[in-house]
Write a structure and sequence with these properties.
The chain has about 170 residues and is of the alpha/beta class. Helix content is about 40%, strand content about 20%. InterPro entries: VWF_A, vWFA_dom_sf.
Length: about 170
Amino acid sequence: MIDVIKTFQRNGDRSRPWIFVVVTDGDDNRSSRSLRKCAEEISRLFTKESSNFLFVVGVGDGVDSTKMEQMASIGNFIYFPVKEFYLLELVFLTIAHKITTSLSLSVGNLSVGNYSASWAEVQRHRNLCQVAIDYALLIDVSASMNSVILPPPPQCFEGHDLKKKYHRGD
């Protein structure tokens, strides 16, 4: 993670928001730093800037969510626990919502339900889809992720064996 953050610092455009998404099982098998030291360094190098967004997605049943939430709290980033990769679409929609609401202001002239804004603010929010960003997606490909990444084999209804029924021997 620190290597990617340093890449942002070397090559990123400071006039743009920086968005960094990490997908992991949370099994740290390479770091020589403690959880606290790593989280503090993330905060110091990346998340202390209000235009930088870090989201860590813990995938699978084996993720130590308590440890990940502690790290997120110290490192000032958002942690999403997800049981299966199939739910990542929902996570990315949530991330997009969090970023766009963070980049827009709330000013009260128009109101709909509990939300209010000036017309200029409505226009600004509409234009957020055109805001340039610097983005990094880091997917953990360590051996411990194999059981999380690989989908289960397809299964037929009980009592049906499609291979046997439709396979023609040579």
